[in-house]
Inverse folding.
C-alpha cells in the first residue's frame, strides 16, 4: 500500500540511485505492464486500457531516500489527475502517452531527500468494496533549491477510506460525469 511491498527480487542488489532534482523542476514518471514490456509487444502496456481511474503523486521527506522502512512516513500530494470534462480518464491519457506523465515539483518544498510515490487507482471493479485496485511505486529523490514549506500530510495506510467516493465508485452505469479523487488536494506553494 505504501511503495508496493518489498524489494523487487529481479532487481538485486537494491538500487543505490538517488535522483537529484531542483524544486520547481518538471518531472516524469513512467509505468509499464511488466518489467520488460513495451507498447509494441504488449497491448496492455503500460496498463490495461480498461483499468480507468486517477493518477496521483505524493512525496514523503526522509533522512535517507535509500530507506527500506516506509511505514509511518508522512506524505503530501503534489499532483492528481482524474476524469476531465470530456469524460476522459487520467489512465487513458497515460496509456496514450506510452506510460508517461509529467508534473511539476513545488518550488517551495524543503531541500533534502524524499520518497516520491506515484499511484494509479483502477476503478473497473470498484462498484463494491474492496474492488478498487491500487498500483504504486516509489522513487528516491534529492531536492535542492527549495524553500521552507511544511505541507499537511497523510499516512499510508489511512489516507483513503472504503467509503470515500473515489474508492467505491460506479464506473460503467450511469456513465460518470464527475469523479472525486481520494486523499487530500495537492499541495501548492
Amino acid at each position: 500500500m505504501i511503495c508496493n511491498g518489498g524489494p523487487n527480487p529481479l532487481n538485486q542488489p537494491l538500487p543505490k540511485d538517488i535522483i537529484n532534482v531542483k524544486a520547481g523542476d518538471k518531472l516524469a514518471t513512467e509505468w509499464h505492464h511488466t518489467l520488460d514490456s513495451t507498447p509494441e509487444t504488449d497491448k496492455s502496456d503500460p496498463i490495461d486500457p480498461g483499468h480507468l481511474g486517477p493518477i496521483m503523486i505524493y512525496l514523503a521527506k526522509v533522512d535517507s531516500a535509500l530507506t527500506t522502512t516506509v511505514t509511518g512516513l508522512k506524505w503530501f500530494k503534489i499532483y492528481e489527475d482524474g476524469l476531465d470534462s470530456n469524460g476522459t480518464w487520467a489512465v487513458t491519457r497515460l496509456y496514450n502517452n506510452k506510460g508517461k506523465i509529467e508534473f511539476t515539483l513545488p518550488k517551495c518544498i524543503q531541500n533534502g531527500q524524499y520518497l516520491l510515490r506515484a499511484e494509479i487507482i483502477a476503478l473497473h471493479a470498484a462498484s463494491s468494496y474492496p474492488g478498487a485496485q491500487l498500483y504504486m511505486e516509489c522513487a528516491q529523490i534529492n531536492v535542492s533549491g527549495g524553500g521552507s514549506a511544511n505541507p499537511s500530510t497523510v499516512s499510508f495506510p489511512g489516507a483513503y477510506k472504503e467509503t470515500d467516493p473515489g474508492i467505491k465508485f460506479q464506473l460503467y452505469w450511469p456513465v460518470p460525469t464527475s469523479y472525486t479523487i481520494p486523499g487530500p488536494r495537492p499541495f501548492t506553494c
Remarks:
- The first strand starts at residue 19 and ends at 22.
- The mean pLDDT is 93.
- The helical segments are 90-96.
